[in-house]
Amino acid sequence: MEDEQESIIEQEEYEDGDKPLSTRYRPPFRTARMQIQRSNVCSRAYFVVVMVFFHVYILNVIGLLLYVHYNNGPGELVSADGDTSAASVSQGGTPLPSPTPVSEELHVEDHSQSFSLPRIEGIRVGHVQQVSLVPDRMHEMKTISLKPLLFEIPGFLSEEECRVVVQLAQLKGLMESQTTTTSQGQEESNQPLLSLSTEEVFSLLDLNQDRLLQKQEIESHSRSRDGTWLNPDNLRQILTGLEACPTGMLTLEDFRRVYDISQHPGRQRRGKLRSRFKQRSKHTWLYQGQGSHHVLHTLRNRVTSLTRLPSTLVELSEPLQVIRYEHGDFSNAHHDSSPSHSETTCAHTRLAGNTSALTEVSCRYLTMLFYLSSVEEGGETTFPVADNRTYDEQALVQEGVDLIDTQETCGRGNLRIKPTAGTALLWYNHLSDGRGWMGELDEYSLHGDCPIRHGVKWVANNWVNVDPDSQRQARYQRLVAQRKQAKPGMEEHYQPLSHSNLHQDL
Ligand SMILES: O=C(O)CCC(=O)C(=O)O
Ligand SMILES: [Fe+2]
């Protein structure tokens, strides 16, 4: 009986199409043979499973590589200043070939190209990449922080270019950047501004006027550069109250409780709202399109090259803003761009915008800040929460320390960059939406500048405007293209918000 069983097993083994049994190892015991039989079947199944996993793995790797290549990869840079044959970005010093010409004209046809926004990879803090921006030299671009993604490029402008931009700004004439106070200092800036009831304050905070205060609404106030009428303690009280609220929203009654100014008579005497300094400087705007000074034009091309953004986006963005800070001048910490709400619309795409939106705001995917002068003492650009592990609105305004207030707390920021003539900073104000377009505001991009102690500081801002609604951005670009076709030679100009408007919008 046992023999019979054995021969059946053996026969099956042979019929399976493997080697003849005679050539096989014949184990002395039946149980062992059965195990071998099972292990053959198992190893085939195992082989199939492994192969399937292997293929899935390979496909995943290919997919990932393609994703990285088209979205975030260390793509190609183009040499600006007309040199399209030069190499571009590389890591470790070897330039990569990258011949994509930067056009002097608006690319009205390349909408498809416009719908992916490349991002430079930071790799890690301290990482240095070689970039080719001018024909005869390479520049080094160093990662300064990952949150926000921030780079420093020394020598982005030559001494002569800095001088030209400053002179052009002086020729155009600088205007006062609006401040909420006179320029006599903090004392005076604390003068009462308005006397508002708690209900009026509630209404001001209630951006969408739904009679409920959401965290977003309170936070968007706390972000404003002027930081005016809610002091840090008020803000902290309100946010704490909101967090204790199970609905996550405050009704007017809840608000009354958390905004109980009578408990803190010293902080908000008689309910007077106080304004504080937000900034002090002078600024002007310089157009960079056709007919502008070649240095301005070149600078814009260099921005396109470095950022690898579609040239249309850069060309349709705000003009160059040049700012001069003198002794004591500064600006409070702020975000250059705005969080997107249903009630807001981007100023730059207003042509294609939703007219029912309440507020126009600045939508700035990235900032390029150029230092046009070195400063002897003070005037550092500060990123108070750069590379924090977490971003916490409340931590910004803890008792006695208001990181927004650069006049008082500049030294406490996480990162401070000393202005050096010719150096450029590049940072992304927004995260990616994960699909290659602009996503949420990067809270960590909060920055300001410390008061000038000695010397004069000149800087210029090139902001690249992008609408978080890619369809609206596309519509806007189509409209501009149509207008351009109808009126050749006319350049569509972004109408800049004034510097002060901008920061009230934040
Ligand atoms: O001047 C600086 O260092 C920063 C300027 C700035 O943040 C701005 O103008 O928005
Ligand atoms: Fe800024």
Give the secondary structure arrangement, pairings included.
Elements (H helix, E strand, L loop, with lengths): L1 H14 L14 H43 L17 E2 L19 H4 L13 E7 L2 E9 L4 E4 L5 H14 L2 E2 L9 H4 L2 E4 L2 H8 L7 E2 H8 L9 H13 L4 E2 L1 H7 L13 E3 L4 E2 L1 E5 L7 H14 L3 H5 L4 E6 L4 E5 L9 E3 L12 E3 L2 E8 L5 E2 L2 E3 L9 H4 L9 H4 L5 E3 L6 E5 L1 E3 L5 E4 L5 E3 L2 E3 L2 E9 L4 H17 L12 H7 L1
Parallel strand pairs: 14-15
Antiparallel strand pairs: 1-2, 2-3, 3-4, 4-20, 5-11, 6-9, 7-8, 10-13, 11-12, 12-25, 13-23, 16-20, 16-25, 17-24, 18-19, 18-23, 21-22
Helix pairs in contact: 7-8, 8-9
The protein binds 2-oxoglutaric acid (AKG) and fe (ii) ion.
Structure explained in plain terms:
The protein is α+β, with helices and mostly antiparallel strands. It has three domains: 54 residues, no CATH class; 284 residues, Jelly Rolls (Sandwich); 70 residues, Recoverin, domain 1 (Orthogonal Bundle), CATH 1.10.238. Helices cover 33% and strands 20% of the residues. The protein has 15 helices and 25 strands. The strands form seven sheets. The protein has a ten-stranded antiparallel β-sheet, covered by helices on one side. The protein has a five-stranded antiparallel β-sheet with strand order 10-13-23-18-19, with no helix packed on it. Strand 2 and strand 3 form a beta hairpin. The protein binds 2-oxoglutaric acid and fe (ii) ion (FE2). 2-oxoglutaric acid binds next to strand 23 and strand 25.
